[in-house]
Write a structure and sequence with these properties.
350 residues, alpha/beta, Quinone Oxidoreductase, Chain A, domain 1, Rossmann fold, 7-stranded mixed β-sheet, 6-stranded parallel β-sheet, 12 helices, 29% helix, binds nicotinamide-adenine-dinucleotide, binds threonine, binds zinc ion, GroES-like_sf, amino acid binding, zinc ion binding, NAD+ binding
Length: 350
């Protein structure tokens, strides 16, 4: 096996990243080394690349970026019993303590001591990567690596869409970024109808249609609340799924959802949000869910099965594929400009 590898590394506490050559790491106790077959860019990677306030407070350069991955185990560290060389895995990024109050109630997704793979330690934008064995998820051999790498963000989308009944329910999705697009795919595969998507970017509205949205609306040009009321004969939607992190979208969605309906919130707002709780939530008797991470490990079973069912329309979401990492700066800039769905790297060119 090679002794040296390429990696996209956050080398300095400043904008950007560098493609560097480093030693292929050795797995320690409880770890495995994987050959990275496919790895995709997450919005969190963009924040690290941009070196925003959150990244400055959390990331300690030098560090290899990336956390959405499919890879093959090529070396097993001491004490690892459940994985073997040749296993085909993806990674749950939330490394939980197993000991806190939340973990002891099987609420691992809200473990208060969570460390994030690729955020709090080296990640997977590299030819090879170290993975904590307890966070590995074994994939069926025939799952395409680009789908397998998407399972982690798909888990966010699955927990949002499937937080309540969805089959046959009218649904509003606000935001058709990579996460919202995955949400549309999950909602359609699960039988939601009609799926209405509010998204200001024309490029992303077109992607939303390709993924299967029944209606799209530009909230900067048309009132999405009126649009929803027109489509639903004045009833409002049964389900409102927030994937944008835009305060205005939250308010519009709460107005567009029918009294007694369901609201699941994944988008993270840039600041505190003011909402008319009395009229938009309490008197409407809404069921409101905050969504974070993935349920361990139930969500992974659901995601894997949905992919294997063949019903998830993922291909239109993967808009950019790169062999190798040489063009990583172009990839990051395109994604920053909102000109992509998911961007996937295949590090090994052969
Ligand atoms: N809770 C969690 O565990 C978790 C996990 C991953 C991501 N997130 C959050 O989910 C959100 C979506 O992630 P992403 O990577 O797709 O982000 P993104 O920024 O790429 O997508 C957001 C989309 O919302 C659109 N938008 C902006 N204003 C809007 C408005 N007023 N109405 C409708 N749409 C609007 C944007 O054009 C964009 O396409 C982000 O806020 C992200 O931080 C949360
Ligand atoms: C790591 C972060 O970007 C990831 N999407 C999560 O679920 O938390
Ligand atoms: Zn992520
Ligand atoms: Zn815990």
């Amino acid at each position: 096996m090679a002794e040296k590898m390429q990696a996209i590394m956050k080398t300095k506490p400043a904008y950007g990243a560098e493609l560097v050559e480093v030693d292929v790491p050795k797995p320690g106790p409880g770890e495995v080394l994987i050959k990275v077959l496919a790895t995709s860019i997450c919005g969190t990677d963009l924040h690290i690349y941009e070196w925003n306030e959150w990244a400055q407070s959390r990331i300690k350069p030098p560090q290899i970026m990336g956390h959405e991955v499919a890879g093959e185990v090529v070396e097993v560290g001491p004490g690892v019993e459940d994985l073997q060389v040749g296993d085909y895995i993806s990674v749950e990024t939330h490394i939980v303590c197993g000991k806190c109050y939340a973990c002891r109630h099987n609420r691992y997704h809200v473990c208060q001591n969570t460390k994030i793979f690729g955020v709090d330690m080296d990640g997977v934008f590299a030819h090879y990567a170290i993975v904590p064995a307890k966070n590995a998820w074994k994939n069926p051999k025939d799952m395409p690596p680009e789908y397998a790498a998407l399972q982690e963000p798909l888990g966010n989308a699955v927990d949002t869409v499937l937080a309540g009944p969805i089959a046959g329910r009218s649904t509003l999705i606000t935001g058709a970024g990579p996460l919202g697009l995955l949400g549309i795919a999950v909602a359609k595969a699960s039988g939601a109808y009609p799926v209405i998507v509010s998204e200001p970017s024309e490029f992303r509205r077109k992607l939303a249609k390709k993924v299967g949205a029944d209606y799209v609306v530009n909230p900067f040009e048309e009132d999405p609340v009126k649009f929803v009321m027109d489509v639903t004969d004045g009833a409002g939607v049964e389900v409102f799924l927030e994937f944008s992190g835009a305060p205005k979208a939250l308010e519009q969605g709460l107005k567009a959802v029918t009294p007694g309906g369901r609201v699941s919130l994944l988008g993270l707002f840039p600041r505190e949000v003011t909402i008319d709780f009395n009229n938009l939530i309490i008197f409407k008797a809404l069921e409101v869910h905050g969504i974070t991470g993935r349920h361990l490990w139930e969500t992974w079973y659901t995601v894997s099965s949905l992919i294997q069912s063949g019903k998830l329309n993922l291909d239109p979401i993967i808009t950019h594929k790169y062999k190798g990492f040489e063009e990583f700066e172009e990839a990051f800039e395109l994604m920053r400009a909102g000109k992509t769905g998911k961007v996937v790297f295949f590090p090994h060119k052969g």
